[in-house]
């Protein structure tokens, strides 16, 4: 694992960003402070902090009895349920490393993760969303142990209940603050995921800084509706930020707004997080359903660029503060502030949560560009990685002078706010002109006949690349290419920022964490003949 240079590490410690705490000490501290308060809720259980700690002690002992110990990687592939959090802290107690697999991953991804991490165990549900994870685990035989939450089924798999029957006693492992605490998956949608190493010091600071910006306290009730293994859900401020202040985490294994609104009403949720792909669906539900959402104070939207028109629609639809979130598993987290005016919330992705975050915006030659100009965002800081896990060749090009190349194209305003334009690789080269697909998507999203839209390039013998708009219609009428070209022209876009082809879909494909999956859309075009 690539560590921070000692000079930077010493500064982060001296300035109080890194406090020398580990996750076992974190759990002990919050248990002592908030023992009788409710820590976790899902559709089956409610656990106080003291009950959470007791279950962690039992499971950590059960893991040790299996021979799992310090430094061992364990693939955690559980949906949003209390066992995820219990297991996660139990692994921390014994010095093992949770690898945040997603419920949507299948054999290719799980085999890759097991090989990359040399994982000794794989923890799964028995059946979730009509998929039998026991069959998946049986096909991925690289690990020593498969632990099943539910019925183990296949001989040789270990039931979670067997871990829970272990006798709890101290396990005697002492982690260091700079030890590897977990492995997150990179958020890219191309190729197999890279692994992001996070330490106790840096990940705890990430949670603490985000919680401070979001003003979390003991009255906070956080609804985890996106996958809990997603960094956004886990730590921005998410699960860990909420537990750190004595709040309550509600784990909802759904992103359906009707079900989530029931959770908000029943548990008096104060903060939750969704992606831009979910935003129009949630806004529509809020407008047409009488639900008591009066407890909701903050609605975070992140994981991808939120278009201005959609941001304004969501702000108008909810009687709470909408917060834009721009972050990455690799580290940097930007948030709009709760007292920012609506125009700032609608048009920017906020500012960094840490005063120690160092940002550069550069051109293709790594030369800094003036504020207001578009360039690639480079970043370093007390919670941004200095190297991917076991990826020396990729690291050689992913960093420059200690700065991480995010691949995001942004504009930095004189105020310090970041405006995300798109991804360096999410561009269309049409007729000799290059434009960012998310910019045009944002305008198309405002079209009254469009519910959701994604723009992808396709090879073209004349244009080089043509722009294909995959559209989920808002009604029965699908706008034509000419309709959209005229619409974009009326909104003041240059003529080359247009749509050459329209493909209606019933829904847009998503990655395992709920982001738009453009790779899946590109595959739909792969076998088609070139358009005239």
Automatic annotation (TrEMBL):
Keywords: Ligase. GO terms for molecular function: acid-thiol ligase activity. Residues 29-389 form the AMP-dependent synthetase/ligase domain. Gene3D superfamilies: 3.30.300.30, 3.40.50.980, Luciferase, Domain 3. Signal peptide: none annotated. Residues 439-515 form the AMP-binding enzyme C-terminal domain. PROSITE patterns: AMP_BINDING. It comes from the Bacteria. The keyword Ligase applies. This is 2,3-dihydroxybenzoate-AMP ligase. It comes from Actinokineospora fastidiosa. The lineage of its organism: Bacteria, Bacillati, Actinomycetota, Actinomycetes, Pseudonocardiales.
